[in-house]
Protein 1
Amino acid sequence: NILECASFLIAKNKGRYGKELWSDKDKGEKISIKGFWHTKEESVYVSDEIEKLISNKTPLSEIAILFRVSAHTRSFEDRFINLGLSYKIIGGLRFYERKEIRDVIAYLRLVHNLDDNLALERIINVPKRGIGRTTLGKINSIARNNNISMFNAGSKMIQDSTSKVNIEINEFIRKVHKWYNLKKEIDHIELTQLILEDSKYVEYLEQEEKNSKNPENLNRLENIKEFIESLKDFENLEGFLEHVGLVMENISNTNDESISLMTMHSAKGLEFDNVFLAGWEEGVFPSMRSIDELGKKGLEEERRLAYVALTRARRKIHITYVNQNRYSYVSHDFNIPSRFIEELPKNLVNINNSTYLSNNNFIDEFSQIENMDSSFITPGRKRLLSRIKKEEDDWDFNQDYQSNSNATEGSRVFHQKFGYGKIIFIDGDKAEVDFEKSSQRKIFLKYLQFTA
């Protein structure tokens, strides 16, 4: 079944030399495809399936999780740490070991505790501020001689002169004091976003991505987005930093027998009995960046990656996707499943959509809308409608299902994330909406549901 699915998928690539994969093993199980509303549900499902495998004496070394984006290992790593399941990252670093994540954690540690000398040493010159080893040595010396923290030693040192480097140190200290004073007034998520903005750390990563040919640099911004998402699991900064301490302990206590986590690129040449393919959402996989930059060639390369991922499994494959956008502050709220899921042979897969979809009657309501202008129908919605006509179970989703022809100032609308509100004014394809349980926001008309 696995080889037949992989061959069926890759056959969509035109101009490819046809070759049929075969195996002398039995047909095996169908590929399991499951949709979830949140990333947490996805990682809980995968960990539950792994626990079942363990109870059936399956070695951890025969279990692997493959991702298109390395940042998406984070929710699985956190879950495994909480459960005490041993894991390793193949061909890369664990999420909290990655340079940019350690940098942001160091900023947060320093803001939490101004006496944290290790945190200060790590980020006082990141991004570059012209504060080199010689200057750090002087600060260290003042700290030791006066039995004070390096942060206070830096404040003491800049009193002696107004050199360029001292001006930079003064500006750094001023910003840290500002963040330290604000930490009781704003939550830890806003604080982190403010630090990233004030320190120009995101700009620094964007510049790195622009100038570097190292593929790792392309993932750094994704890792930062995932990091901010991870903060939502904690009530405050203290709780998050305690968790990080636990994570770092787990990193130092590794077993040979571990679950393998890796990107699809890192999986080439490896095989496992049980493979979980996570994050099969349109825009994530296939990668929107790849399609935007390379067009059809990029799409075919992504399909080859899907083929590689599928053929890593000897016995069983689970494919998962998440409906809610992994980063809730991006321009749209929801994902549809990857087009590659649609390209798999229907008789060889078992599909289960998210609880949200199965408990929501909007699909039935939408399918009854007549005379809808085809320009409003996205590819995801077209597939959704075609399945309803065939009386097939739906596992595809796009929330922008209502025409904006009803849009007028004063209209009452509903948004999946922000709830009910009233349109204040319309600007092209967007509307300024005053939400009843949120603030006033500018939203694309296609993401609004018009109510009577």
Note: Residues 188 and 237 are 5 Å apart (CA to CA).
Protein 2
Amino acid sequence: LDEKGDLQKALEYYTKSLDFATQLRDSSGIATAYNNIGYLYARIKEFDKALNSYFKSYDISVKTHQINAAHNTLNNIASTYLKQGNLEKANEVLNKALKNILTVDDPSYKQETYQLLSELYAREGDFQKAYRYKAIELAYADTLYTQQRLSSIAEMQTRYETETKEKEIELLKKDVELKELQYQKQKSFQQVLVSLTLLLLAIFIGTSLILGIIRKKNKQLAEKNKELFEINQKLKESEKNLSELNATKDKLFSIIAHDLKNPFNALIGFSDILERNFNHLTENEKKEYISVISESAQSLYKLLDNLLQWTRAQTGSINYIPEKFKIEPLIKQEVTNLNANAEKKKIKVCVNTSPVLNVYADKNSIATVIRNLLSNAIKFTDIGGTIEITASESKEYPKMAEVVVKDSGVGIDENDIDRIFLIDGSFSTKGTANETGTGLGLLLCHEFVNKNNGKIWVNSTKGSGSEFHFTIPLA
């Protein structure tokens, strides 16, 4: 009821906008107002009124040569016919839009036309044409995404170039100051020489004056050289920070462009199948589709959680609060949380830890480390495999506890071991049951273990399982 009330209020505003545009004889404004009124009528399912407004908008746009606006209105008319189930009328309008599509400038309007054509032919049962127009629609979607990404990259490039120019100008200013100092020094020396030539009796005083001036200038020159050195150091730090920012940006774009897309595709695809074919599906099919949707949602939640923690770690917004706690209950809690995933693959998880082993670290970040290592072990262990988690005092590192997560899984290639904890070398590999990931989990582990003054490493042989070790201070 609230949404319908808001739409009615919006309808009143657009009607007032139509009256105002009519008074001003603004053809573009009139066409836009009719188009928006038609859209609102379609939202409240008063399709005849919607079509009436759309056709008025279309006629005005055609008469005033507003090609993009006219095409957009045709798309809205076709969409309304599809909602009414009038496939014949929708086909007629879309073919009309298709004939004029080459004159349209806005790629988003073209994309919508091909999307509607794909939907039309799918509902008519002509899946070959539906697939062909869906492919064209996706091509336009990729083009729009590429344009947006290029625009973002261009903006970052401009900012980088601006900062570089400002630093170059600052260096030039320092160079001018140095030359000015050198000129003043040379001028002073010449004045002293003239004074020595004219005033032989004032040699001692003149010499003292010269030495004083030279000492002063040398001190100033040393200070300027120190400033230049500090500026160069800051430039090097800025370049390093920029390189890290670019690596972070590339990783973020990769996640957004690829890893977020797959869970959403599954959610949208299978929920759409359920919505359109619910009454025609068997109970087993419904359970299977719901299971896929649930797994995709869990995968998406895990991805977003890791992405959020990683982003907060990069921006320094995570508060690390070390405290004394027993490690065994924390490990068992994380095993309990992931037990359902292990049971799906019939993996046996064993915990061998000392119940009195106390550590001093940030509890939340260590829980994240254990959760990600255990999740990876389950992901890369075959059905019926085993995972063992141990925690004890480290023999190699004094005053440190050492936690080991050992699995009987597929192992890691020797060439990949050295780069799995690096942002520019991290990568995502599908698990033994085609589980997906982003490569962020191990980055978070490396970040959090380092923040807690520990070390993390892996021993693994391809095909023989893996052992992930990390240390944290004993309490």
Note: The chain has four domains: 2-125, 149-259, 271-318, 320-473.
